[in-house]
Amino acid sequence: MRPSDEAELSEMVRAARGALAVRGGGTRGVAFGDGEVVETSGLSGIRLYEPGALTLVAGAGTSVAEVAAVLAGERQRLAFEVPDLRGVLGREGVSTLGGVVAVNACGPRRVQVGACRDHLLGVRFVDGMGNVVKSGGRVMKNVTGLDLVKLFAGSHGTLGVITEVAFKLQAVPEAEVTLQSARPLAEGLALLRKALGSPFEVSGAAYGSFGVLLRIEGMGASVRYRAGALKALLGGDWAEGDGKLWAMVRDGGGLGKGALWRVSCKPTAAEAVVSALAEVDHEATFDWGGGLIWIAVRGFADGGAARIRGALAGVGHATLMRGSGAAVFHPEAPGVAALSAALRAKFDPTGILNAGIFERGLASAGHAISTLSNPGKSGQGSGG
Amino acid sequence: MDMPVPDQAVLSARDRIIARLRGVLGDGVISDPAETRAYECDALTAYRCAPLAVVLPRSTTEVAAVLRLCSQMGVKVVPRGSGTSLAGGAFPTSDCVVLGVSRMNAVIETDYDNRFIRVQTGRTNLAVTGAVEADGWFYAPDPSSQLACAIAGNIAMNSGGAHCLKYGVTTNNLLGVTLVLMSGEVVEIGGPYSDAPGLDLLGVICGSEGQLGVVTEATLRILPKPEGARPVLMGFSSNEVAGACVADIIRAGILPVAIEFMDRPCIRACEDFAHAGYPDCEALLIVEVEGSDPEIDAQLARIKEIALRHDPVAYRESGSEEESRKIWLGRKSAFGAMGQIADYMCLDGTIPVSELPHVLRRIAEMSAAVGLSVANVFHAGDGNMHPLILYNANKPGDLEICEALGADILKLCVEVGGCLTGEHGVGVEKRDLMHVQFNAADLEAQLRVKDVFDPGWLLNPAKVFPLDVTANRRAG
């Protein structure tokens, strides 16, 4: 099904007799509902763009590329950096704004400006009963009523089908510099944390096969000053790095074969997480000063889930982005899981929207792998 | 303003309820009417009602015990931080227990390597920064009441402040909470890492005005202090021109930490009160930028270039700490200055920045029509307005005229694409205006969230949602 507007979508949901798999562009979802596919690509188009107010409102099916091009024309952008996961997930298709919201996507700049949720001003959606609902709006500060906007960011299509989104934008800074330095792991991670604890407004802090990578953005003179001050603070040799490396970090860390994990953790716990894989065939790329780790693991039936999740107790969580043999989403504590399940039941009482993806996981991960080996068939992702 | 009829069964069981509360809290229960009167209102002083009792627990365990007990006895609970809400967010009912977190103000953990602090939520906003500033760190959200307001209230209202243009509001700086549900169940949500694995419960808890649970501990993002900051003050010949200058600064991609706006009535009042040396003009902007001295120079040069295109009648860059203090002095004393002149009601609507000139013009027309003065002082960078309507509380009928004008101004904010409240919250004050911004389906979706967390509808009664849409649930 491909509704062309909100009213038509509402009718389709009301008339549904079974499960619906909500799908944006199918480029970034990691868990897949069964049932008839509902595509949001017909709910597209920029509805409002006010460069002077740094605000954009668009249909959920609007392509990320189209929006990026329009914003670039005014030297503006979505500050949270939208990852393109088609490479690491083996997908094709056109990424949509709704999908970006559904998975609460974000890239390296999260350390400075936050994730998609922090830039999302409003949503419209159709819930599991077919009700058309709005929350938030298009202004920067809004505490009117409960914040369902945040609740929908990262809901993976389970609470409702997102139909329209409003974003806060950022002006593209006039200058950007990337600093690069080869260091051993422990020293490299410590340098990232030190850089983020400095007043020099680091907008990217990554470590991987490329060594330590730090990014500074802003007005030209200011960027030069802060880069110099940061080098002096951190010590050692620094080269001007290739800014293109940030796209690789953003898009899954540039990691090859095997189960792919996205780990969010307390930065100082990062080293212990990869130590748990010490004698295992794996690669890791660290972002957010160690707060995000992309890990590719080979040779484990569970993709390394037991070891990785075992090392994260109380300090973070891991999502299986690619691979099989383990739950896609990190198990939630019982109290949290009960609240989340009750919320889903309130918004979708018959459980038709991307049904069971948070509870299930195992089978859906297998589905993801099948799309990998068959790139012609794109996944029915909650995300786009 | 209407409030629900008090629960007679609860009122008549008063002594038994208090005895059972004493059983779990000992001397942490206040029931003497002479003492509960101190809790009869928050900073929205127009409405007053003493609660049945006040409890001041010392720990999450005690909060859980109180909530479990009240839940069992069907007693409503009004959570309270420091009582600085301008919207009546902690306004009691005569059949409720006020649960104050003021005794819970400890720092639990400070971790610079991972950039967070964990505190009990009775701690004041400024005392969070106070715990880390000697080491060069700060907590960014800075509501005007930061000396007094508690983190619990900041989380409940998703508080902002003058500097949130750059650093975001509470929800953007909150990593995790310990939440006690009305049932007494304690739930840990989030932690010292980014983004939840499942639904973003933290996002809906922040700003929920005590409707979903009581937050007893919070993990907050702390940031390294900037090297320096410097404000510039500029005066303009009209509100429109000042508004256009704001839009140009934002569009140029400069990110000041604050852009504050004051109109003529406000400038005059502040000048008479604080003698900050403000120029005599129609509209005034205070723009503050951060960084090292050379960075500040570069940013201010760019801002000056933009401002000069709008023919400012005054342009004054701070040259010293003392001058910076003076530039902020008038702005920071704005509410106090207004209080000297008259009683006032402070509104909090947000509008798209592009609508500033139109909305200011309409407010002037509307206030003239009813014969009350309105002074405007607000965070212009994000369109969060604070019109102050001046009235005389001793003059019969004046409060009603003021409230009607306030409602009309907030309707105007919604009409131009904005919202009823940008940072103060809905509370009881704007509860009945929610229909202006939300239709029945929008409100129903919010009520369903409340149903999940507080199925008995006992937490912070008669706030946020219009009474007519909650009647069935409250009766149930």
Features:
heterodimer; A: 384 residues; alpha+beta; 4-stranded antiparallel sheet; 13 helices; 17 strands; 25% strand; globular; disordered C terminus; B: 476 residues; 7-stranded antiparallel sheet; 5-stranded antiparallel sheet; 19% strand
Q: Beta-strand percentage of chain B?
A: 15-25%
How many angstroms separate the termini of chain B?
23 Å
Shape of chain A: globular
Estimate the global geometry of chain B from the Cα principal axes: globular
> Could you state the oligomeric state of the chains shown?
heterodimer
Tell me the fraction of residues in β-strands of chain A, as a range.
25-35%
> What structural category do the secondary elements of chain A indicate?
alpha+beta
- Residue stretches of chain B low in confidence (pLDDT < 50, at least 5 long) are none
Radius of gyration of chain B: 23 Å
Query: Tally the helices of chain A: what do you get?
Result: 13
Contiguous low-pLDDT stretches of chain A (5 residues minimum) are 362-384
Helix share bin of chain B: 25-40%
Cα separation of the termini of chain A = 16 Å
Largest sheet properties of chain A: 5 strands, antiparallel
Output the strand order for the largest sheet of chain A.
3-4-8-6-7
| Strand order in space, largest sheet of chain B | 15-12-14-13-17-18-16
